[in-house]
Structures are given as structure tokens and as C-alpha cells.
Specification:
By secondary structure, the protein is of the alpha+beta class. The protein has two helices and five strands; from the N terminus they run E-H-H-E-E-E-E. The chain has one domain: YaeB-like fold (2-Layer Sandwich), CATH 3.30.2310.
Length: about 80
């Protein structure tokens, strides 16, 4: 199950990011990399065609059988 932190819920509302885009980014990413600043976190990237082809970055971690989303945003500098 995918769970959103309070910060993630607020961020996707402000940034107009659909939850299904987050789910797609985690389940079928274009690429995945460890977070450079925080060990244990992953960054999953996916190009979102419905949003002008922009690259969505979702920062998340595993917690038991769940995936906890920390934040999500469209990453202008991403080139996975």
C-alpha cells in the first residue's frame, strides 16, 4: 500500500500532482536512484505525458509492506 505523509499530501495539492501519477511513478518508474541526502530514501522518476511530458520525482521509503511517500514534485533538472 502507498501512504502519503502530511507533507506529501500538502505538496501534491499545491503542485497539482495526481495521486495516480505518484502510484505510476513508484510502480513503473523510468528510473530509480538512492536519495543523495538521506540514506534509506529512494527517488523514483517518471515522465508524465499528461503534464506536458515533465519528469515527476517521488521521494519514498519502504516501511514494512507499505511505501511511504515523503514528497513529490516535477523536476526540471532530472535526466534519468
Amino acid at each position: 500500500m502507498i501512504r502519503l505523509t502530511k507533507h506529501a499530501r500538502e505538496a501534491i495539492a499545491i503542485r497539482d500532482i495526481a495521486v495516480q501519477w505518484i502510484e505510476a511513478t513508484i510502480s513503473a518508474p523510468d528510473s530509480v536512484a538512492p536519495d543523495r541526502r538521506q540514506p534509506g530514501l529512494l527517488r523514483s522518476y517518471k515522465r508524465i505525458i499528461e503534464h506536458g511530458g515533465r519528469m515527476l520525482r517521488v521521494v519514498h521509503r519502504a516501511e514494512g509492506d507499505d511505501i511511504v511517500v515523503i514528497t513529490a514534485h516535477f523536476d526540471r533538472g532530472a535526466d534519468p
